[in-house]
Amino acid sequence: MLPLTLLRTAQNHPMLVELKNGETFNGHLVSCDNWMNIHLREVICTSRDGDKFVRINECYIRGSTIKYLRIPDEVIDLVKEEHGKKDNKRPQ
Known about the structure:
It is built from two helices and five strands; from the N terminus they run H-E-E-E-E-E-H. By secondary structure, the protein is of the alpha+beta class. The two termini are 21 Å apart.
């Protein structure tokens, strides 16, 4: 399972993005590109020390600033199902 495949499957699902500077962004994934740049909507941004919260309609996060992503388990299950279907379609 490739990370970009996982991200593309996660479109329209909620996710948490933590940046290298410690800030976190909780929102719904709109899109991502080949460089893992991410477009989120309905975002809540939390400061690195956790005492400031900002609501943002949408934001764009550069992929090189991302430390990690947290996505729902249901998205991982969807990717596994799709991957299994592709394996079954391959000629033996």
